[in-house]
Design a protein that fits this description.
It is a single chain. The protein is mostly helical and about 100 residues long. The chain is built from three helices and no strands.
Length: about 100
């Protein structure tokens, strides 16, 4: 086995290992945040969905997927982004009432 192919395998293994660890860490953080009382839970669910779709977009192989898939994914990202922004905006408007 050449050193170039060995280096490539090591990089792929390290990348895969990082991807496998990211999921459980995100789940742990989301559960921790979900148990807090000062966080709007819908906002957390939307943020989790945004993270999930972002991971999918990062690994897209544009040579194998069609333009419909890209358009559908971008529509989902846009809808989730607008939803998250609206929830954040509403949350910001409510903060002065608490004081």
């Amino acid at each position: 086995m050449s050193s170039e192919s060995r280096n490539r395998r090591e990089r792929e293994w390290t990348h895969d290992k990082g991807e496998r660890l990211r999921g459980p860490i995100e789940i742990f953080l989301n559960i921790t945040l979900y148990l807090r009382e000062d966080i709007i839970h819908v906002k957390l669910v939307i943020a989790t969905a945004l993270m999930a779709i972002a991971r999918k977009v990062i690994v897209f192989d544009f040579t194998e997927i069609g333009h419909q898939h890209v358009l559908a994914s971008s529509t989902v990202v846009l809808a989730l982004g607008i939803t998250y922004w609206l929830i954040s905006k509403r949350e910001d408007q409510r903060e002065p009432e608490k004081e």
